[in-house]
């Protein structure tokens, strides 16, 4: 659509597109450490059942996903792989950093092999504190992300300015 | 059509003529010659669902058959042994919770008992019982996840949901007792942080019934499944002698027919000498028998918890320890039977508030050291089965 490229989207159409975008988030699971099990509980356990929020957790590759959840400790050895797979994702893409390790290094803040925060490598939308966070916290993060997507403009200029917004922390 | 070669000037090669009748045979010969396709190198991981996290396997393939497999570890190396040198003893328990993140409580016990041995104190009997109960609960939680996950890896999605569902009952128990769903950090040197909450014992009894039911479900749904048996029987056989030589321990070794369990055969710890339990083994040593052994051990753990619930004495849960813990100089080696196998800590103390050096012997590291041998000559789908059957945790490998 030529309108999108020019950044001239009528508001109702923007809302409609955002509405459909936020309820079909294809989520790439980057299970790294302890948090991966809690993420698995949020996805697979009938008690939490994340799919009811419109999150589809089984993309075969990052090329098919909109959202990546970095759950666990990012080590310096792992960091290049994370950057590479993030760059394979198509725009617009969103990142949830789950757990203290991914946020800032967590209990390994003085370790020689741990990257102190995944936001040094890739831009992060939502931070979830906790070691590990409960599955409910991950659900809350997804709901907050959906709110943000609903209020986004989808013209070119607006998308370019997406990273100037406030970062969200699940509290 | 006849072709006559025209040799270049100075060349010594003779003229040659090809009879058209022989061309057909030549063509047939071309077909019959087996094409040498070369080996294909397949990179499994570091981000791959079958590797339980971040194990990277470089697999050389000839068609569907694995020629060699190289596990590349270190993607989850967090430097535990170095960090412990900068932490005090109570702080170290926070860290070592996260080595084997599925059975956090079981990780704490050997380290805390190592410190207690150096200080020459002992936790009161009630604390010992509660430690045993929580260790077995974390074993159940670990194995329930395995029982579901193994089904998932061979292509059945339903067991994974069941595993996560029933595991929540155990996590509820751990959370109500310790405050942490995942990483309890409940052990203190000389006892426990708190006593059990009111009504916990009755809750635990009813949760054990859930575990027995879950085991029955898995036995019918997965172990009795024809497809599962076809995928797992005779796959990834570890001979007993070779397993011992590689340092494989825990359920993986017992599934190879080695009757060795540190809870029974090792240095007596917690209240295991007073409990009546059976050590399950299986003579086959394949992925199927590993599933069988873990299933039976889950039941056995639930029985142990019930025994402890009946016998738990009243009394304090903490001995008198100084406010600032200083451990006298000395060296001690403590090993326990963790859900994944033999886990030990070699603690060297120089009399300070923190350890001078801690050597961590984790089960998964030795368990996967057999992988290059085990994966030779198997087919690609069996790689996933073998990885799932060995059941390692990446934090336990890389530390």
Automatic annotation (TrEMBL), chain A:
Residues 34-145 form the NADH:ubiquinone oxidoreductase-like 20kDa subunit domain. Gene3D superfamilies: 3.40.50.12280. One of its GO terms (molecular function) is metal ion binding. GO terms for cellular component: respiratory chain complex I. Keywords: 4Fe-4S, Cell membrane, Iron, Iron-sulfur, Membrane, Metal-binding, NAD, Translocase, Transport. The keyword Electron transport does not apply. The keyword Transport applies. InterPro entries: NADH_UbQ_OxRdtase-like_20kDa, NADH_UQ_OxRdtase_20Kd_su. Pfam families: Oxidored_q6. Belongs to the complex I 20 kDa subunit family. HAMAP family: NDH1_NuoB. PANTHER family: NADH DEHYDROGENASE, NADH-QUINONE OXIDOREDUCTASE SUBUNIT B 2. This is Unannotated protein.
TrEMBL record, chain B:
The lineage of its organism: unclassified sequences, metagenomes, ecological metagenomes. This is Unannotated protein. Keywords: Membrane, NAD, Translocase, Transmembrane, Transmembrane helix, Transport. The keyword Transmembrane helix applies. The keyword Ion transport does not apply. Signal peptide: none annotated. Belongs to the complex I 49 kDa subunit family. The chain crosses the membrane at residues 370-394.
């Amino acid at each position: 659509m030529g309108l999108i490229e020019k950044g001239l989207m009528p508001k109702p159409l923007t809302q409609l597109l955002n509405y459909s975008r936020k309820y079909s988030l294809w989520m790439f699971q980057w299970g790294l450490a302890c948090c991966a099990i809690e993420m698995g509980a949020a996805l697979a356990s009938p008690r939490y059942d994340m799919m009811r929020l419109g999150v589809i957790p089984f993309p075969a590759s990052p090329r098919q996903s909109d959202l990546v959840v970095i759950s666990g400790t990012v080590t310096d050895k792992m960091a290049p792989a994370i950057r590479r797979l993030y760059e394979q994702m198509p725009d617009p893409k969103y990142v949830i950093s789950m757990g203290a390790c991914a946020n800032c290094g967590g209990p390994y803040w003085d370790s020689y092999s741990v990257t102190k925060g995944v936001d040094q490598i890739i831009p992060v939308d939502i931070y979830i504190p906790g070691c590990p966070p409960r599955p409910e916290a991950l659900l809350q993060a997804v709901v907050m992300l959906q709110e943000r997507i609903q209020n986004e403009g989808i013209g070119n200029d607006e998308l370019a300015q997406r990273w100037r917004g406030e970062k969200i922390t699940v509290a | 059509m006849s072709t006559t070669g025209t040799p270049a000037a100075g060349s010594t090669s003779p003229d040659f003529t090809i009879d058209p009748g022989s061309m057909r045979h030549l063509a047939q010969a071309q077909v019959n010659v087996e094409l040498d396709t070369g080996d294909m190198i397949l990179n499994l991981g570091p981000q791959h669902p079958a590797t339980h996290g971040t194990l990277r396997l470089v697999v050389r393939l000839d068609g569907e058959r694995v020629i060699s497999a190289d596990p590349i570890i270190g993607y989850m190396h967090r430097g535990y042994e170095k960090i412990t040198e900068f932490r005090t003893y109570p702080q170290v328990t926070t860290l070592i919770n996260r080595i084997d993140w599925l059975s956090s409580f079981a990780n704490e016990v050997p380290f805390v008992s190592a410190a207690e041995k150096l200080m020459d104190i002992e936790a009161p009997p009630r604390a010992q019982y509660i430690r045993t109960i929580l260790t077995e609960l974390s074993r159940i939680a670990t194995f329930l996840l395995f029982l579901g996950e193994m089904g998932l890896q061979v292509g059945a999605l339903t067991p994974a949901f069941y595993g996560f569902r029933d595991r929540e009952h155990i996590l509820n128990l751990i959370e109500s007792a310790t405050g942490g769903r995942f990483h309890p950090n409940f052990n203190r040197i000389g006892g426990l942080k708190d006593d059990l909450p009111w009504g916990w014992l009755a809750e635990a009894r009813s949760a054990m019934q859930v575990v027995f039911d879950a085991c029955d479900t898995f036995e019918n749904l997965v172990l009795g499944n024809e497809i599962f048996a076809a995928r797992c029987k005779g796959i990834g056989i570890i001979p007993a002698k070779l397993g011992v030589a590689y340092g494989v321990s825990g359920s993986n070794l017992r599934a190879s027919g080695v009757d060795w369990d540190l809870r029974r055969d090792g240095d007596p710890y917690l209240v295991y000498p007073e409990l009546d339990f059976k050590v399950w083994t299986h003579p086959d040593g394949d992925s199927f028998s590993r599933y069988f052994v873990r299933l039976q051990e889950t039941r056995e753990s639930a029985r142990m918890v019930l025994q402890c619930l009946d016998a738990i004495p009243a009394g304090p849960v903490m001995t008198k320890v100084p406010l600032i813990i200083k451990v006298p100089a000395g060296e001690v080696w403590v090993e326990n039977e963790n859900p994944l196998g033999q886990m030990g800590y070699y603690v060297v103390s120089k009399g300070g508030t923190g350890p001078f050096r801690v050597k961590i012997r984790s089960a998964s590291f030795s368990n996967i050291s057999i992988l290059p041998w085990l994966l030779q000559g198997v087919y690609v789908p069996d790689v996933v089965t073998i990885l799932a059957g060995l059941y390692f945790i990446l934090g336990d490998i890389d530390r």
